[in-house]
Amino acid sequence: MNKIALITGAGRGIGKACAKKFEDYGYSVITPSRSEMDLNSRESIINYISAIDCNIDVLVNNAGINPLANIGSIDYRAADELMNVNFWAPVLLTELLAPLMKQRGYGRIVNVSSIWSGVTKAGRAMYASSKAAVNAFTRTAAVEYGPYNVLVNAVAPGYINTELTKQNNSPEQIEKIKECLPVNRLAEPEEIAELIYFLASEKNTFVTGQTIFADGGYSLL
Known about the structure:
Layout (H helix, E strand, L loop, with lengths): L3 E4 L5 H12 L3 E3 L11 H10 L6 E4 L14 H29 L2 E6 L12 H21 L4 E8 L5 H6 L2 H10 L8 H12 L10 E4 L7
Parallel strand pairs: 1-2, 1-3, 3-4, 4-5, 5-6
Helix pairs in contact: 1-7, 2-3, 3-4
């Protein structure tokens, strides 16, 4: 296949599952660590991408952080980092890589959003805002690059069986969450990776500009 995918946040959870999925399908996968490409630093991102000497066919903007804070108690330094990692880094990576995809007449970009971009709960004002911004950016990027066979989509996962979910929810809370989901369970990272792979693969020839909620029906209730 000889296609190359760059995946951020591939050290665990959905990103790790994505890296394995793409490798299983024959892609060469680039998974920069934070020490190699700090998504909180514009300079670090530019330097890392500038040093890549191969064509990137697929970009998966998966990395994200989720510090919780109620309105009135927002730490704006932490909020700035959240926006840099969750929103500005995907924007900058798209700006750096999409024009090259355009020149080659092929590219796939998938931004990992969140159900909290469409619904929300206490403590997630900044996180929800960053992911809603990702959805809006996805739509505009799809319009601008669609004519050049560069398809841009977002996936908004719900509750996934990851370490981050376990950090933000007690075992008792997770059991209650399962009961509230129409499918009565959390998703496994591999299930989300399968959807991301489809959107980022040559099998996807027409879907662009969409934010697909993969949440087991949570956002319907």
